[in-house]
Design goal:
This protein has 428 residues and is of the alpha/beta class. It contains 14 helices and 24 strands. The chain binds uridine-diphosphate-N-acetylglucosamine.
Length: 428
């Protein structure tokens, strides 16, 4: 199995450039379905999730040319299917982002249900309720969601019960060709939503208000292909900046907008780090001890759940105790138990983590529980005593391009290597 092996205690400092945002690129790729022809996306991260979305598009008839690793030319003129099968949705939940675009282009879509659970429990209920308000009818059969708009999509007001990123995006894309005006109330405000709205508008859509809680979409009759640059990845940036706060030596990150990390950087400052913001770059370092501060994750502009694990890694070394409250996802504290194997003192009570700072981490064998938790374990390894080996790193590959290479370029003693599974020698 592939693992990342980190030797702790070496100086990590310097400059890195982040890629385009995973969470934006995936939706922009899905949006190309709505404009027949070749759309060019630049600044696309070369990561596993983008490859899965590529397969989703090819599966319905798109052709994709990869230019220089980070540019995709997506030709959707031959798209002639509206079905996304389970083996692709199972690899990546964000495959459901094609629901809105397929409804826009064909007035129908078949998308496998994520996780095989029922709709209510499996958390695409807001997508479904919102789309129903626009005239979409749903039927669930044999693990698939069959969506169709027999009388066409018609604009209406949809109020989301939670500012869901995925539901906002699907509704925005489904309403582009709807008759009349669609209003999405309590919309998500993430920078990736703004990026998607910008691209839709460049294509000829009439979307206003993206980045605010109320988005209005005035229906148009067609979209045309464009060339669009994916917004810089604020979470990849935040991860490297957290490393500056962790080791203390300055880390500069280029290729993103620091205002997209507003609250995260403020929290780093409260924790004793220094932050220098530029228009498209940011530097973080620290020459004081880490101080505890409470964190609660919330939709943008609140503290991002995608930065929770990396920040927990910092707080686990703070001089004192604090509480981290996870309000966006259940099961996002799995990282804490792995970090405890490295000496952290964290108690989980429901969606609260009580973090008591410890003097240091000790290197250990740990498993990536998920994408951000995996990155945060590698972070912990950078300052741990001895060697840390992180397994299940396919999670990290989903969202970080060249993570090991970038850390290496900052001076980390880190390698990706293959080790035998622990039980390879055991026979029954
Ligand atoms: C996106 C991001 C993810 C990020 C999250 C929150 C992508 C590919 N992923 O995920 O990295 O952590 O936003 O910023 O862009 N929910 C429901 N019903 C729904 C939809 C969502 O109950 O119909 C729940 C979810 O289970 C979750 C919460 O709402 O608990 C937030 O989900 P949402 O904002 O939709 O996240 P995603 O779009 O899945």
């Amino acid at each position: 199995m592939d693992v990342i092996r980190v030797e702790g205690g070496h100086d990590v400092t310097g400059e890195v450039r982040v890629e385009g945002a995973k969470n934006s690129a995936l939706k922009l790729m899905a949006a190309t379905i709505m404009a027949s022809g070749t759309t060019t996306l630049t600044n696309v991260p070369n990561i596993a999730d983008v490859h899965v979305m590529g397969k989703v598009l090819k599966n319905i008839g798109a052709k994709i040319e990869v230019v220089n690793e980070h540019e995709l030319k997506i030709d959707t003129s031959g798209v002639d299917s509206w079905e996304t099968p389970y083996h692709l949705v199972a690899q990546m939940r964000a495959s459901t982002a094609v629901l809105g675009p397929l409804l826009s282009r064909f007035g129908k879509a078949v998308v496998a249900m994520p996780g095989g659970c029922n709709i209510g429990a499996r958390k695409i209920d807001m997508h479904i309720l919102g789309l129903e308000a626009l005239g979409v009818e749903f039927k669930v059969d044999h693990g698939n969601i069959y969506a169709s708009a027999p009388h066409g999509l018609v604009g209406d007001t949809v109020t989301l019960s939670f500012a869901s990123v995925g539901a906002t995006e699907n509704l925005m894309m489904a309403s582009v060709f709807a008759r009349g005006t669609t209003t999405i109330d309590n919309a998500a405000r993430e920078p990736e939503i703004v990026d998607l709205a910008n691209m839709l508008n460049e294509m000829g859509a009439k979307v206003s208000g993206a980045g605010s809680p109320v988005i209005e979409v005035e229906g148009v009759s067609e979209l045309h292909p464009v060339t669009h640059e994916v917004v810089g990845d604020r979470i990849e940036a935040g991860t490297f900046l957290a490393i500056g706060a962790l080791t203390g030596s300055p880390v500069t990150v280029r290729g993103f907008n620091p205002t997209h990390l507003g609250l995260v950087l403020k929290k780093f400052e409260q924790m004793g780090a220094s932050v220098e913001r530029e228009a498209r770059a940011c530097t973080v370092w620290r020459d004081r001890p880490l101080a505890p501060t409470d964190i609660q994750t919330l939709p943008f502009p609140g503290f991002p759940t995608d930065m929770q694990a990396q920040t927990m890694c910092l707080l686990a070394l703070a001089k004192g105790s604090c509480v981290i409250t996870e309000n966006v996802f259940e099961n996002r504290f799995m990282f804490a138990s792995e970090l405890s194997r490295m000496g952290a003192d964290i108690v989980i009570e429901g969606h609260h983590a009580i973090v008591h700072g410890v003097e240091g981490f000790s290197g250990a064998q740990v498993r990536s529980p998920d994408l951000r938790g995996g990155a945060a374990l590698v972070m912990a390894g950078l300052v741990a005593d001895g060697v840390t080996t992180v397994s299940d790193i396919h999670h990290i590959d989903r969202g970080y391009e060249g993570f090991v290479e970038k850390l290496s370029s900052l001076g980390a003693r880190i390698e990706r290597t293959t080790v035998a599974d622990e039980d390879d020698d055991i026979t029954m």
